[in-house]
Amino acid sequence: MTALTIDVHAHVLLPEIEALVGGLPGLAEARALDARRNGPAALAVNGPMVRERVPLLTDPTVRLAAMDRQGVDVQLVSPSPSHYHYWADEETAEKLCRLAGEATAAHCSAAPDRLRGLGLVPLQHPRLAVRALDHALEQGLSGVEISSHAPGRELSDPAYEPLWSRAEESGAVLFLHPFGCTLDERLDQWYLSNTVGQPTENAVALSHLIFSGVLDRHPGLKVIAAHGGGYLPTHIGRSDHAWSTRSDAGAGCAHLPSSYLKRLYFDSLVHDPHVLGELVRVAGPDRVCLGSDYPFDMGTEDPVGALRAARLSEADFDAVRGGNAAALLNLIPA
Question: Domain Amidohydrolase-related: where (predicted)?
Fold first, then answer.
């Protein structure tokens, strides 16, 4: 029996989504906010970077050839986070999520033994989220991708309780991938909006899930945090200290914050073998999965090589390379 190599962090671009929202009220304002947060220098690089990768993002044949070069057997494919459009009204958001699920499922149908997909839910409209999750699962997708927050709502918001309950009950995967950082213009130079913003958003979102007790109430949730969970896993000792010494910090969750890392999953995309080794240590070798951020420039073109550089034990290497994701996605090696 051959172990699978499984990449849980890979994206698909869905032109149908952008056609749906094009020209709608709110789009221009959202794009202006995105431009303000990233700054002109980043936008000047982002446009050409994405355009040259369109075949990698849209053509399953090109994707599969790239996977072969990387030695990846299976990708968990999620929509580009640029498709969230959390500004959209209820009617548009519901159409968008249905379209995202159907289009992602169609993309993955080109090679169902190698491509598994995720849909989207409208975090800005919590009452629609369960229906969107169910629709994604009906398309044969493994779950949904969510950002670190929606406008005016953190992931600790009680309005999301039905979503967490349904995801836990159904076994759906929730892939936590931020898009945009609320530090705004403080990060609008040198691509700090991504290099600092993404790991910050990951840490904030995971802290809301932990400290609010979401993971106490829903211990069976399957949450995969992109970018290795950001800053939180390597700085979790500060959270433990606050929980232990302050009544306000410890009021919402039952256990030390660090203990919840072993209830979450993390991708391996941290760009530093020492940080990856620490992530495996604090979360456990059964809680880290291979991730590449295919095919964007902030990812890695050699995810297996990046994992090998962490010098894990053979058993831990095999678990991260694919064993953990195979169990998470209910895949049986051939």
Answer: 6-331
Distance separating alpha carbons of residues 292 and 303, to the nearest angstrom: 5
Q: Whole-angstrom Cα distance, residue 27 to residue 23?
A: 7
Q: What are phi and psi of 147, to 5 degrees?
A: -90, -175
| Strand 153-154 versus strand 149-150 pairing type | antiparallel
Which two structure tokens, joined as six digits, stand for 266?
A: 């993390």
What residues does 175 pair with on adjacent strands? 145, 224
Write b or e for each residue in 72-89: b if 16 or more Cβ atoms lie within 10 A of its Cβ, otherwise e: bbbbbbbbbbbbbbbbbe
d(CA 323, CA 331): 9
Structure tokens at 232: 């939180």
pTM, entire model: 0.97
14 neighbors 80 (Cβ within 8 angstroms): yes
3-class DSSP state for residue 153? strand
3-state secondary structure of 41: helix
Domains and CATH numbers, the chain: 6-328 (3.20.20.140)
1: pLDDT strictly greater than 60 = no
| Residues above pLDDT 90, as percent of the chain | 98
Structure tokens at 303: 């995810």
Q: How far apart are CA 150 and CA 226, in angstroms?
A: 17
DSSP state of 29: H
Strand ranges, E, within 99-240: 115-120, 143-146, 149-150, 153-154, 173-176, 222-225
